[in-house]
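Moderator note: this is an archived Q&A kept for reference. The question asked for a predicted structure of one protein chain; the sequence and the answer are reproduced below.
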Amino acid sequence: MTSKRMLSSDVARVALRLYEGLGSPIALACAEMLRKGQWDGISEVNPDPRSYTNAGAYLLDAAAAGLLRKFQGLPTSHDRRKSAVDKWWQGERDCYRTNERLSPYLPENVLFHSWNGTPEGRIKEFLSLVRKEITNWIGHAPPELAQGRFGPGATYSKKGGRTTVPDKMSSTPSLTRGAIWFLPQWLGTQWGSAIAAHHGEVTFVPGNRFATVPKTAKTDRAIAAEPDINVFYQLAMGRSLRRRLRANTGWNLDDAQEVHGQVARTSSVSREFATLDLSNASDTVAKNLVKILLPRLWFEALDGLRSPKTLIDKRWVVLEKFSSMGNGFTFELETIIFAALSTVVSRQCGYEGALGKDVFVFGDDIIVKNDVYRSLKPVLEFLGFSLNVDKSFYDDVPFRESCGQDFFDGKPVRPYFLKEEPCGPEDYIAFANGLRALGDRLTENGLDGHHRAWFGVLDRIPLGIRRCRGPKALGDIVIHDDPERWSTRWRHSIRYIQAYRPHKTRLVRFDRFKPEVILACATYGTGNRRGGVIPRDGILSHKVGWVTYS
């Protein structure tokens, strides 16, 4: 579709330079669509690595298609929020069907069935094995006293820019009826004491609030803003699940992404492992599945903290899913469920089924032995999950993808995704560094094509700031470049590099808040020596200065 709406001139100019520099058929097609304003066409381009025979050819096309795929300023005709809402409702329908299908296997129903030797009996036996595995990993019960903590984002009560810890502590906290059992613990915290000293009120709400965040140029991602006290303890439960998983299996989610990347890279050559991705995974973890697989006390604790309803488009909807993104334990819970399923299936296929050895799981990113995926796929489908065929790779395909890392025959082929409109010099530095990293991947594949685009971005950076060049280790406060182009100086045997670093920040000062809130913040280690906290979007300005680099 051709649109009269325009892409910003700076982004359009750089994109055109990159397309022309890459020079592949898809890149040149993207250039032609850009000239004609065919924004929907650009957003639809998605080359399939299965159609390529070498890494270089795929990377050229993927780099062209990826540049604007997630760009929020691409003026397409897509209603991104509607796409997210439609997908959310589809997830609820899928969960309803899963809950109905799994109802006979619930602990309270299973005693009424005699399934010896039947397919249903084998399903019951399999689910029992998975439940036993999960129990071995996380124990029979959660900790008696959960160490609650605050997340950085919005909650049901707090949204917009007022989501700092003292802001959250100063408002009337919200919670669901199911979380009432955590009130005694909460009243014993400094946060609870601050509320008790101020007004002593809490607000009961039916559940969470639907929201969306940017995902691609075609669709947003559905999330949920949870009630304040719920998410405080959801995060505690998530951390407990993470710790127990590590203690009892050795699988550390804190560094799992790096491990996934290493396995994906080697498997793109050896084809030893399959990398699997699930569609809409968080929104398709059905309530009955969690009740069947988790130990009773764990289920009761998590069920009490979850939101049973969602406020979406001004109506409350009773949820068929167990939890969604935005819930503080969703990531750890889905990791454990998918890991246990993969482990049991791997053992049934003759493997050890050990996390970190022949099973790797991070959220809904699953890696199993290549011949295991055929047995795992129908299990996942029966339990309500759908394999994302566009992002799952196995058999002789020379491509593997996991945790945002793409490899083709052992070579990195991840595109660069421009996500937001660059405004100030700091944004253009990040843009330039993204193109530079893409250039490194092109070089590793014996290719070129990014330089004109890279120089085009540098032209948008004032000359004085353009001298701030340095190593990747310093992040986006310097333009990544070769060492001979760094601006350095030495003082007392310490090397300093010129950088465009944050200068002024927006400070939410503690003197705005009551003493009880200030004391509670001190207890949680919140704040700095300037007498306040810096919100997530608190950087107001940057300036050229010097930073140490060893």
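Archived answer notes: The mean pLDDT is 92.
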